[in-house]
Amino acid sequence: MTNLLHCSVLLNEAITSLNVKPEGNYIDATFGRGGYTQSILNQISTGHLISIDQDSEAIKYGEKKFKDAISAKRLFLIQNNYEHIDSIVNEVGLKTIDGIVFDLGVSSPQFDDPKRGFSYRFNGPLDMRMDQRQTLTAFKVINSYDAVHLKKIFKDYGNAPCSWQVAQAIVKERKKQPIKTTMQLVGIIFDYLPEAVKRKKGHPAKKFFQALRIEVNHELFSLKTALEKSLEKLKIGGIISVVTFQSLEDKIVSRLFRKLAKYQDYPKGIPIIPENVKPKLELTTRQAIKPSELELKHNWRAHSARLRSAKKIRNISF
What we know:
The chain has about 325 residues and is an alpha/beta fold. The protein folds into two domains: about 10-110 and about 220-310, Rossmann fold; about 120-215, Putative methyltransferase TM0872, insert domain (DNA polymerase, domain 1), CATH 1.10.150. The protein has helices spanning about 10-20, 35-40, 55-65, 65-70, 85-90, 110, 140-145, 145-160, 165-175, 180-190, 195-200, 205-215, 220-235, 245-260, 295-300, and strands at about 25-30, 50-55, 75-80, 95-105, 235-245, 280-285, 305-310. It is globular, with a radius of gyration of 21 Å.
């Protein structure tokens, strides 16, 4: 029996960072099971909230749970990829956005449902799609990408050990029969990893599964695109807050925030600093906020979470 409960990580810290105003308009870019959405709705009165998720099951859940808020047009629940956040805002018709929050973790119902194929702990089909409407699946990646491409994915997106050996093994084994399930893939990883690697802390398949999920869902490209479009849509004085769960995501967020929070290069000797080279963001978290010991005690999946937030202080265009 799978556990379908989901605890929003760094919920209080992320929502506090938004400084929610009763009349403000906000975006929960990663609805999940609605933890952030519920908290924002509790604090707005005449304001509005757009909540976005690719997952049809999350949308069905949200439509039932937040039926009244949707009917009252306080909440707009949209099934889409957050990389289209600009067109979503335009379609809904909100003129200003006071705050945007991202929780980039895979929700517990997705991880714990074997049919979704996200977890190396349960046997299920090699799927891993956030959006069940898309055609690319983990099955297609594993059974059609060549060894060079597989190795690059495992190394770049997971920093997985022995990436080349495992990639070659996958190509070898799929010639015998298609690799259809998560446990088939886990078995290949186990069979071809050295004993010294398997004895290390953590499940040997974890980094391979992370890399595969990122590839299937184009997660890093979508994140970069979504952040840029979000910053363009955010009003001056508005806040963007992002909770990441792995270093590749955190680097994208931190580098973009820090780049926009400093003066851009311009010729020396100019007495008046041009407006376009002045900082566009003010960092409201100088260092990433981590979960408290109490949260870690109650939710082990929070251990890698990091929260970064920033305030928009000038117009931004990319």
